[in-house]
Amino acid sequence: MIESTANKLLGKSENTTVYVCVLYYFIMAIxxxxxxxxxxSWNLLFNLLPLLIVAxxxxxxxxxxxxxxxxxxxxxxxxxIGGYCLxxxxxxxxxxxxxxxxxxxxxLLTGALIGLINGVSVAKLGMPAFMVTLTTMMLFSxxxxxxxxxxxxxxxxxxFVNMPYTSLWFIPLPLLIGxxxxxxxxxxxNNTLYGEWLPSVGMNSKTAAISGVKVQSTTIWSYIxxxxxxxxxxxxxxxxxxxGSPVMGQHILLDVIGSVVIGGTSLFGGxxxxxxxxxxxxxxxxxxxxLNLMGMSYFLIMIIKGLVILLAAMMNLLKEGKY
Amino acid sequence: xxxxQKAIQLLLNYSTVVLFLVVLVTFGLxxxxxxTLGNITNILIQSSSLTILAIGMxxxxxxxxxxxxxxxxxxxxxxxxxxxxxxxxxxxxxxxxxxxxxLLFGLVNAFFIFKLKIVPFIVTLATFYVGRGLGLYxxxxxxxxxxxxxxxxxSSKLLGxxxxxxxxxxxxxxxxxxxxxTQFGRQVYAVGNDMAKARKAGxxxxxxxxxxxxICGLCAAISSLVALAQLGAVSPTFGYxxxxxxIAAAVLGGTSLFGGxxxxxxGxxxxxxxxxxxxxxxxxxxxxxxxxxxxxxxxxxxxxxxDSLRHKSVQKALxxxxxx
Amino acid sequence: xxxKKIFLMVLSFICLLSANTGCRPKKKGVxxxxxxxxxxTEYWVASxxxxxxxxxxxxxxxxxxxxxxxxNRQFEQVNNFISQGVDGIVITPKDAHTIVPIxxxxxxxxxxxxIYNRLPADHAGEHVAVVADNYEITxxxxxxMGELARASGRKHKAMILIGDLGDINAIYRRDGFNDGIKExxxxxxxxxxxxxxxxxxxxxxxVTNALQANPDISFIFTSxxxxxxxxxxxxxxxxxxxxxxxxxxxxxxGFDGDPMAYSLLKEQYLDxxxxxxxxxxxxxxxxxxxxxxxxxxxxxxxxxxxFVIHQKNLNxxxxxxxxANLQTP
Amino acid sequence: MLLQLKxxxxxxxxxxxxxxxTFSLDEGMILGLIGENGAGKSTMMNLLGGIxxxxxxxxxxxxxxYLPNSPIAAQSKGVAFxxxxxxxxxxxxxxxxxxxxxxxxxxxxxxSRIDKKTINVKAKELLGQVGLTMDPNKKVEELSPAPRQLVxxxxxxxxxxxxxxxxxxxxxxxxxxxxKLFELIKKLKAQGIAMIYIxxxxxxxxxxxxxxxxxxxxxxxxxxxKKSFDIQTMVKEMVGREMLEFFPGRMKKIGKKVxxxxxxxxxxxxxxxxxxxxxxxxVGFYGLVGAGRSEMVRVLYxxxxxxxxxxxxxxxxxxxxxxxxxxxxxxxxLTEDRIEEGLLTRMNIQKNAQLAALGHFTxxxxxRINRFEAKEKVKEKVYATKTKYENLTEQLVSTxxxxxxxxxxxxxxxxxxPELLILDEPxxxxxxxxxxxxxxxxxxxxxxxxxxxxxxxxxxxxxGLCDRIIVMSxxxxxxxxxxxxxxxxxxxxxxxxxxTAIL
Lengths: 323, 324, 329, 503
Hints:
The complex is a heterotetramer of chains A (323), B (324), C (329) and D (503). In chain B, 77% of the residues lie in helices and 2% in strands. In chain B, helix 3 runs antiparallel to helix 11, helix 3 (37-62) crosses helix 12 and helix 4 crosses helix 11. Chain B is mainly α. The longest helix of chain B has 32 residues, at 292-323. In chain B, the strands form 2 sheets. A two-stranded antiparallel sheet of chain B has the order 1-4. In chain B, strands 2-3 form a two-stranded antiparallel ribbon. Chain B has a single domain (3-319), classed as ABC transporter involved in vitamin B12 uptake, BtuC. Chain C contains 11 helices and 12 strands. Chain C has a 6-stranded parallel sheet with strand order 2-1-3-4-5-11, sandwiched between helices. In chain C, strands 7-6-8-9-10-12 form a 6-stranded mixed sheet, sandwiched between helices. Chain C is globular, with a radius of gyration of 22 Å. Chain D has 3 domains: 1-78 and 161-245, P-loop containing nucleotide triphosphate hydrolases (Rossmann fold, 3-Layer(aba) Sandwich); 88-159, no CATH class; 257-495, Rossmann fold (3-Layer(aba) Sandwich). The longest helix of chain D has 16 residues, at 175-190. Chain D is an alpha/beta fold. Chains in contact: A-B, A-C, A-D, B-C, B-D. At the A-C interface, helix 1, helix 3, helix 11, helix 13 and helix 14 of A face helix 1, strand 2 and helix 3 of C.
């Protein structure tokens, strides 16, 4: 009896996470005061966007059977580069929008560069992804703190810090950025040659190589994409906090990996979808926000999130028929 | 193999020792205070906690696993022992109790890894957060100042040796003995080399996985106590990122992330000493402290790269041998 | 197989159950949200307790959140306060700049916001801040220590433990130290500045190594009292921890006024300590928020002048020192 | 009677691999077990070795029911299995490998530790039995293949076995080393140990064994004393069936040289390989496992590097090869290991089939995929290969049978319109029907202007399909036969006797 119920609940349908998500939303809307309000819905959305964007990058890397632990340090590095460019060295560039474009370009470039370092180390030098990104995480968060001596950059241009509250065609700018990133990521994965190559490399790099897939460059690009995504998220974080900070994003790693794992993307590579990660990120943010509204401390939330990720990993194994 | 290739191979094999010597000589030249007896004792004492942690990690890495939760175990153990001692439990009661907590964490990790078959990385990442959350929850993020008696253990001496060094030596000797001279130890290497082959050869793979994670948890608990006895307080950042340092120390000492290769003596010990010497030396020569993580990170990155290159060349050599 | 599924179920059930225990019904009356960046030190714990008790005295409900050093999370927590419809916010920010958007968010929602102990950057929006005069208190403390050094009739080598340089208070304290010590250049030479980033392990390693490099250090100032355990541990190992009057006593000063400082003063190990008046700060902040909620007006900044407590004024000033009124854990 | 098997059957899914085997083995007897690949030899030995249980039938050891549930259980009952792929841990020493599961221990203050002295003595003793005199503390990774093989045997002897099973023990040994091994086997026989010896090397089998058992398609076709066999009869019994019209004929119109390989050398794998392939020609490569055939085509396709020699493709000297370039040139490569190197098992049929030819369906800067076109083309090819499936885009390839999986891999390569198709054991582990269909596809391809290079261990297949057969041994080409010279026994003898070139 119990087993069949469990089967139904955790069954093989890939929509399970969606159902759980929707169910959770309604339960919280009914029982938690302040959850089902317009202000809180905006909260949910704005908390979701940067996390989602980092998680999408991570999905790309995991599809290629890798992992990128350095996303947190990429967020930090790009944040201080952005903060630095916006506040000091580009002050001579007029008008302001050109300055902002230049600085955002510098942030994206930094993200891509760190991604390139990760990718080349993994693909060309054959180093284990886990160890590579672990050391680059230490290295670049150290570098960020060293470069700034723990000082934040502030006095960023008004139009930049007002970005989260600006709308274009009635859509708030951060939401627009999020939609564009999701759109591109979805398109790239579902409609292009690269989108076919990446999962095949992740699932079986030998088969892929023999079938003419450029395995090394495919892997390297996945890390570059991940770096760029982290940089975009960093733009949102930096604008939101109005500061370029070397410790920006230090605590998001669990949420990022959690989003991807809860979504159902396989840790062994080859299986994963952008829409799954969206669901995973939504779930993590909802969990976080609702527990927060219930007055639970940050630390209890941390524990619960850890447990939820274990659960999700078990569900994935169940889905893949590993039990 | 040409002579040049042989020399490269030799350098690859002994890269850590070479690096260690380079570090010692460099700092020795930069500051006369570095290579004094006092400072060397200092390095040993400061590295004792990390080395013990890395010894536990070595066991796990040898089976091609990983344990990211050790830093959190250290923290939870620190908080609980702090709380217990502060409310008046005698230290000699608190110590065995928190060692059991370390073991419990190891048990949980092992359970999820070999029973539920979740990859060690995800399991220990989750317990990493659960542990830290638990510790922060219990401590309410407050720093806990420990009573004098705890510090006294840290600064006491046994047979003329400072206590942390005595404990370090003990763990070192036991760890080395277990790995090199018991059936279990040798089977750990077999499991790390090839789990399927080990199962075929009748090695009790599950029992071994369980035991290594238990050992790792226990070592984390001991390491925590050794650090506490020196610090005298548990802050919310206690043990943070120590798991990375422990992995780095083991890998620097020649333990392969692919399992089956490495040892505690001299490997892990040298790895840990190398890291500690760099940190100590940078302070002694009065370098800008912000650059520490950058230098440490670079050194670790290089060593991991060398490990991969070594692994690659070994793989190639093996392949040539077996085909013809 | 069966075992595993049942286990899964049980685990999810526990998750749900634990999720429900945090639920708290909303009370009537004024509610304020209290967000602390950290509770790491005795100082913050005592502050939190003081704010809570002041609220209770005034019949105010409160919600508490701690962000453990994560500015981003603190921003989210304050947003959640606003979602829950609090009437006022009391916050200890991570630093002077990350608080700016938080103040703006509160302003947009027209909720009065009070900043505790850390001064926001100048361009921040509408708020009321209460801060100790970190610079002056530190300077006075260091001056007192300098006098002691001069009186000892010999030259001293000095060490200062610096806090997180992203924290404006740490910078003021460092500057206060630098300017205070300047007057005593003839007897005190600063040989070691240890960045601790408000981290006890870093402090311990830093002090130990500094004592190794300069064994004759005889003058130590720490930017926060919570680093005492690290310093004492390092001093003991170097056999330099002795009470006042001992020939090898190290002139020792700190900042905060926590319980450990009080007991060290009583045991005659500590020479001087700069004290922030927690009760004054907390009470005036809560009062300010209350009057803002009721539509009143208050100044932008409330300054706590603080005072220096040392061996000579220990008995008369102890009653004003918050650390003396708490039990040592 | 030491060992007795009664009507043993074994099925994997729907495929019956063993169809009722009955035989027995006496003490001190050496039984040679021969048969083609896929005849069921390994399956039978795995049953004996405790790797998996039989589906039906009974086994008796010394009169008692014998049903081991693990290799260790088999070992403790006295059955040792020496696999072709050795089960040694190269990172441990010889002695540790010998005793991995039962180290001699001694108590030391209540702690049980490995007794290094006893181990050394015992290990030396065991190594002595197999004629090795080296230090037992040496790491296995430092040993060359022959001593490794002997260590594995010594390990088996440590458990005092009554029966030892050898699976192709000589493939990685030199002539001299093999001779030593045979002496050892004879010594063991004298001690009363029974042995089952599996080998493709019929010469060795005839030299060594007392009786010969021949398996074909999961059945024991003949078991008799050695004296009633010679190589010819053995081969005949092994291959057995007459292949009436099994290989459809082909229009003959062989053209110009397409590929010319000269003195191709990759150190440690192949040496001075020279051959050519003409347009619309099928060239077969025959030889023992480990003869260097697979290594040679991997170099050709660009998966491994070569040290010297030249490759000329359609009159052009090629200095660089890699899979991407090869596919562009029109070379396709169906590998031997279908699961590890041919398929993406957790993906659907469409994704598997389109992988190599994806470039044909993309356009624009972003390489957008024309899904409709891709699906149509894949459907066409999959239809041509007569694959049985339910849904192209939803069914995972892992749910297909082996034969249908192979057809999908073949479809993948046919989609790239190859001018040269390299096939490495294309019919391994596939049922007869699917085999025939694959032969048909190969013929079609050739008639449409392509060339084929085919590696197979089934000689019948090569003889039926190829225009030429080249024999390789120890990394070198040892003989070449034109269609007119095809004669089963001659080719077999060349390959099995390791005779030198009759070029």
